[in-house]
Automatic annotation (TrEMBL):
The keyword Hydrolase applies. Keywords: Hydrolase, Metal-binding. It holds the Pfam family Peptidase_M28. This is Peptidase M28 domain-containing protein.
Amino acid sequence: MMPHSNRIPLFVETIKSIKETIITNIVLTGQVPAPTFEEAQRADMLLERFSTAGIECAADGMGNPVGIIKGKDPDKPPLFVVAHLDTVANRDVDHNYTVKKNTIIGPGIMDNSVGIGVLASLPDILRALDLFFASDIVLAGVVRSIGKGNLEGIRFLLDHWRTPIRGAVCIEGHKLGRISYFSEGLKRCEIECSVTPGAGLKHKSPPNAILVLNEVINQILELRLPQRPLTRVVIGRIRGGTKHGTAALEARLSLEIQSDHADMVTAVCNDIQDIVAGLAHEYHVHLRMKNISEQLPSRLRFSHPLVKATVEVMKRLKLEPVALPSESELSAFLSRNIPAVTLGITYGEEAFAPELSKIRIEPMFRGIAQIVGVMLAIDDGVCDEPALD
């Protein structure tokens, strides 16, 4: 049993007592647009919140805002708490947030503005809980995370950090009860099709770029993908054309290859490249596939003390742990043999219209309590003997 396990459920009411501070930080940081590669203004806002909370803070060479809560033992390596700054919401979307009795509504709130707001609030939360740590606590809002960002922010931060790192907690807005201690191998790709008017041997009129990509999808669906190691191709988005009555001359397909084994990701990627090359020749169109981002599979064993401690914390808070793979900063830590987990803060809904996305306020306090509980477990030494697969 962890030394602090009996106290953890009591944290919830104390955290709730500074509800206004937490919501203020979520709104102030979340209302600043932060599409990938354009996070500078939100980074400045997070630094301002760190400064207001009275902790040392600065941005690194990549623009990651970093705050440090000093620990009592300078000989102990630091523990990291990280959340990604960027969101999928474009800058031209209305970023005004609406706070209701039990919800906050606005673009990027689930992924990952609530995570950044909680990160900004941690100095005040730990102060309210009267908690002190042996290790320094490094609070990092990382840039260039999602999509084409390809985790560049966290990779830069870890590559340039000069001391060992004791362990890490990665925080995501959604969903409370998730525990991620492994990441799949994946490769995100885009396939672009451009048609030159008058092209095409098989058609009296130019090929339709969307229909060409449809044939790409058909042939991908015919690939024989193994169940062991589990391998998938997820078709995420297709865009193209200009109006209803005109055949599309340009179109783009976004997909993701996922597998428990890195070699399988590479093999499927090669198969899809062959499909693309064959159809480009057959239809006489410009068809190319480019890689957007990728990560290698990595994991902690379920028997690792950090995983066991995290499950204990969650059960103390009457949460039912659900193991899910993570595409977040987790893989950057695990690939460097740094024990880490990803946790969700609350429940919510991601809407197709970004401005309608929302999170629930009340569950958030248990979500924050679990983060603090896992931080205490790391400070008590559960990561001091790494046991990575």
